[in-house]
């Protein structure tokens, strides 16, 4: 069975779906690996490194996909976007695995079904113990949280740690992290390592212990309400208007003495909740920095714009860099490639042949399309015809 790794063609995407390390392990599963020339260049993995690991280098995407049984990607294929249609180069019956945004891009999932592709979305891997090594959302969010603090520190015109010098003492910067999921917890840890005084807030009561274990203080609005704010899958649930109002009041008071804010709140399949309104931005001191990690999902911060650093009338910088994991492409690719490798082991038998066992809860949860139909229970409405 042949596995193809192609160059990511979406703007700002530097990651790659396999590394020379995972190529060796794919070969150990009795698979053949074809890598498009230049696929790993954005993450500093050259063609020679892939070739030395045992992969065959294809001259272009069409050559890589021509005989592929499995295609590993970072982002979803381009579908006639900017004159590029990657899906047309993938054969019917091919397995496609990647970050396919099934809850946000339902029309594209139907296109995979019509094309006869067997698609798996890594975002839908269930958060269970057995699937931890496949959890791409966690591996990439970890790096996003780390990078968010570095981006904020770069734009902040002061030092983060307290410094005692002969010329006087520099006070430590105060950082507020909103959303204590994987990205938020890494942001807390990174800001603490840089010497900042950190506080955090989250709708889930369970986050309090995690936040405090990292040396940050936890801002709590209503512990009773927070206990009901976590889904069975471990994600935050959207709260009611009364809770949102009380949280906004608490955060507003905290912002008056905050220098840097990192916003990380995302709800799968929904627009990101607005955490920082224009009036709230108005209470921040000039020179403060806000990072919106949810900018691609509608944004947690009023006025944030994807790909831009916006400066408000009162001198607050709002950083809206999309796809922060791609800013750390080498390590992000290493982690993502290992996630894919772990998942692929569920789909390959001892002879290197495809086996799709929907009795396995991980396989069933991630499977989107098969036999010309959308089969995922979260998405399926009616079978889509094969074109």
3D architecture notes:
The chain has 387 residues and is of the alpha/beta class. It has 2 domains: 2-124 and 346-374, Rossmann fold, CATH 3.40.50; 142-327, Rossmann fold (3-Layer(aba) Sandwich). Helix content is 30%, strand content 17%. It has 12 helices and 17 strands. It has an 8-stranded mixed β-sheet, sandwiched between helices. A 7-stranded mixed β-sheet has the order 11-10-9-12-13-15-14. Helix 6 (182-193) links the parallel strand 9 and strand 10. The longest helix has 20 residues, at 136-155. The radius of gyration is 22 Å and the shape is elongated. The two termini are 25 Å apart. Residues 382-387 have low confidence and may be disordered.
Give the SSE layout:
Blueprint lengths: L1 E4 L14 H9 L3 E5 L10 H6 L3 E3 L2 H5 L4 E6 L19 E5 L6 H10 L2 E4 L14 H20 L7 E3 L2 E3 L3 E5 L3 H12 L3 E5 L5 H7 L3 E3 L3 H4 L14 H15 L4 E4 L14 H5 L6 E4 L16 E3 L5 E3 L9 H16 L16 H6 E4 L2 E2 L13
Helix pairs in contact: 1-11, 5-6, 5-11
